[in-house]
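Technical note accompanying the year-one report. For the benefit of new consortium partners, we illustrate the data format agreed upon in the data management plan: each record pairs a sequence with a structure-token string. No post-processing was applied to the example shown here.
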Amino acid sequence: MLVELEVVQVSMDPFMSSPVLVLRDPASDRRIVARLGQTEAVALLSVMEKISLDCPSAHDLALSLLEATGGRLQRVEIERRGETRTCATVVVADRDGRERRLSARVVDGVAMALRSAIPIHADDSLLEAATELDANPCSEWHGPADLLEALPDEEFPKYKM
């Protein structure tokens, strides 16, 4: 059974000092935590915090291409594939209304869903197996701006201008 999730936060895992994405089932408060790279965290935070970037992201481009060809994003489904892999399926409707299912990384599916305000679903069994992680920011991290400021110039130069 598919359960609709909401994006709760992007924060720092205080144990690994790396960004994480937290998705939550609002009905049960069960959570899925996905580890992110810094640029992936920026892609999500820029939408969540309404931070304007100079150039469109790859997610913005993909959505523009989809719209230009008459398609539209329907939903994102997160599912387990095999023993240890979790992937996303981006469900799009073509110009004739037929659904197409495209494989994606979880972070890319979530980024596109946030930009399009479409639902994110996960299989209930994925939530049952999920381990809880204390995703509260560590004491040195005060919010999304701190994460962006900590990026080296060569990794995200446009933000530092």
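Partners are asked to follow this layout when depositing records. The beta strands are 2-13, 18-24, 31-35, 72-81, 85-93, 99-104, 120-123.
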